[in-house]
Amino acid sequence: MQYVIFGLVTGSILAMATVGFSMVRQTEGFLNIAHGQFLALAAFVGLFASRDLGMPTWFAALFAAATTGVAAVVLSVVVFEPIRQKGVLVQLFSSVGVAYIIYGLLVMIFGANLQHYEVSFGTSYSVAGMQISFGEIAIMATAAVAILALHVFLTKTPAGISVRAVATNPDLARVRGISTRLVSYQVWFIAGFLAGLAGVMIGIIGSVGPELGWQNIILILAAAVLGGLGSTYGVIMASLLLGLAMDLSALLIPTSYRTVVAFAALIIVLLFKPSGLFSVRQRKQAA
Question: Could you tell me the pTM of the whole model?
Fold first, then answer.
C-alpha cells in the first residue's frame, strides 16, 4: 500500500500542473503545449534560487512560481494575444513553437545535464502500515492549499466570477462589461504560478532537466482530457486518479511503463465516455 502514498503525491502535483492548463483551454480556446515548459522553467529557477541565491526551499518555490506566472503573462501578450483572431490551430502550433524556444533557452542557460535540489524529505511517519515523509506531506498539503485557494478565488471573489463568466460565454461577459483582456492575464498568471509550483515539486522529488517539460505535457494532456476539458474540478479529480493508477501499476509492471498506463486509462475511458469522466459540457448543452 506504500504505492498509494506515491500515487497521491504524483496526483497532487499533476493536479496543480493540469488545472492551469485547463483554465487556459477554457478561456483562450486552445491547447497550450508550451504549458509543459512552464514546469521546466520553474524547476530551474527554483533550483537556481535555492542553490545559488541561498533562498530557503519554500521561498525559492514561491519565487519560481511567481516568476513563471509573470513569464506566462508576458508570453500571452507578446505571442498569443496578437494571433488570437487567427484561429485555434494557429495558436496551437504557435504554442508548440514557443515550447521549443523555451526548451532551447533552458538548455543554453542551464545546460542539458540532470541537476538535483539539495533538500531532505525529513522524518518519516508510519500511517496504517505505510511510511510517509514530512516532505511528501508538505507536497500534498501545498497542492491542497493551492487548489482550495483557487476554489475560493473562483467562487467567492469578483475577479474569479469574471473568470468563470468568460470561460462560459466570453461574448456575453464582454457585453456585461467584463474586461476579457484582464481576465486573460489573470488566467495566464494562475496557470503559470500553479505549473511553477508543480515544476519545483517534480524537481524536488526527482531531478531537474530540460526534458522535464516534454515528459510532463503528455501527462497533463491525458489528465485534462480524462477529466473533461470543460471542467476545472474534473481535471483535479482525474489527475489524482491518474497519479494513483500510474504508481499502483508498479505492483504489476515496470515503472518505465507509467506513461503507457496513463494513456491506456485515457483510451479506455474515452471509448465509453468521449467527453471525459467529469465533463459538464454535455449537460450544459442539454439544458
Answer: 0.88
**By C-alpha distance, which of 215, 223, 270 is closest to 31?**
223
Banded pLDDT at 187 (limits 50, 70, 90)? very high
State the CB neighbour count (10 A cutoff) for residue 198: 31
Measured CA to CA in angstroms, residue 82 lies from 70, 77, 90, 91 at distances of 18, 7, 11, 10
| Cβ burial 205-243 (10 Å sphere, 16+ → b, else e) | bebbbbebbeebbebbbbbbbbbbbbbbbbbbbbbbbbb
The pLDDT value recorded for residue 227 is 82
- Confidence band for 278, pLDDT divided at 50, 70 and 90: low
8 A C-beta contact, residue 27 and residue 183:
yes
User: Measured between alpha carbons, how far is 109 from 138 in angstroms, rounded to an integer?
Assistant: 30
Q: How far apart are CA 139 and CA 94, in angstroms?
A: 33
> So what's the pLDDT on residue 283?
44
Residue 43 pLDDT greater than 90, yes or no: yes
Q: Please report, for the chain, the start and end positions of each structural domain, with discontinuous segments joined by +.
A: 2-210
Q: What are phi and psi of 87, to 5 degrees?
A: 115, 165
CA distance linking residue 188 with residue 192, whole number of Å? 6
132 vs 8, 109, 117, 140, 146, CA distance in Å? 11, 36, 20, 11, 21
Contact 124, 136 (CB under 8 A): no
Query: Which grid cell sits at 49?
Result: 534560487
d(C-alpha 40, C-alpha 24), whole Å: 18
E-strand stretches of 34-159:
124-127, 130-133
Rounded-to-integer distance, Cα 92 and Cα 108, Å: 25
How many residues are listed for the chain in this entry? Answer: 287
Query: How many helices, marked H, and strands, marked E, lie in the chain?
Result: 12, 2
What are residue 230's phi and psi, to 5 degrees?
-95, 5
Percentage of residues of the chain with pLDDT beyond 90:
42
